[in-house]
Amino acid sequence: MPKSTVHYWARQDILVPSVSAERVKLWSYGDLMALRTIYWLRQTKHDESGREVPRTAMKAVRRALREIAALELDLWSEDEAPLVAVDRSGGIVIQHDGEAQRPGGQRILGTGMLDLLAPFTSREGLRGPNLSAPRPRLRIVPGKLGGSPHVLHTRLESQALGALAESGLAQAKIYRLYPDVEPAAIEDALDLERQLAQNLHPALAA
């Protein structure tokens, strides 16, 4: 979503970055799910029959943000992540081990929900990656490397690989720097970093 919108939410105390609220804002894993929640709930939507659904009231949005903040992030691992979704009323639903429940324990089944970990596209055309497996050979785990995307079963962050490419290092040389990492994983990392860079500077990608 546009940076100006995110900064507006921070100024209005709707969602203040939990890592750093200073001029260089730093967001946590939970913050990213919360940002998607606010954006989706505050958009006009349509139900299964095509009827227009008004945007969700801010009281319900704030309740959803509190539920996200209370999520148990130790449910995430490199091999498995729960499904976390929000419904149109602002209710958060967690599916783990095959059962979908609200944080309080009530079992929930239904449609009209947004999967908060799935790839996310805004109306402005910005594309957010999957927040668990942003690429087939990459993972994001809240308790590992501060939630930074990394090559599966390693501590090699995609950001580090992207910085090498940004500095002008040829991709073949990057492969040689990491002989124990399959080239396809490095390609996944560089592709993710290109996508994130395009979101920061969409005019350059046009």
Strand order of the largest sheet: 5-4-3-6
Q: Count the E strands.
A: 10
Provide the β-strand percentage band. Answer: 5-15%
- Looking at the structure, what is the overall shape? globular
What is the terminal separation in angstroms?
Answer: 16 Å
Contiguous low-pLDDT stretches (5 residues minimum) are: none
Overall mean pLDDT stands at 86
Summing up helix and strand content along with how strands pair, one would put the structural category as: alpha+beta
The residue fraction in helices comes out at: 25-40%
List SSEs in N-to-C order.
Answer: HHEEHEEEEEEEEHHHH
Largest sheet: 4 strands, antiparallel
- How many helices? The count is 7
Rg, please? 18 Å
Describe the structure concisely for a colleague.
By secondary structure, the protein is an alpha+beta fold. Helix content is 35%, strand content 14%. It has 2 domains: 3-128, no CATH class; 138-205, Arc Repressor Mutant, subunit A (Orthogonal Bundle).
Task: Itemize the secondary structure elements and their pairings.
Blueprint: H1 3-11, H2 29-41, E1 45-46, E2 52-53, H3 58-69, E3 83-87, E4 92-96, E5 99-101, E6 113-115, E7 120-121, E8 127-128, E9 138-139, E10 150-151, H4 158-166, H5 171-177, H6 183-200, H7 202-205
Helix pairs in contact: 2-3, 4-6
Spell out the key features of this protein.
206 residues, alpha+beta, 10 strands
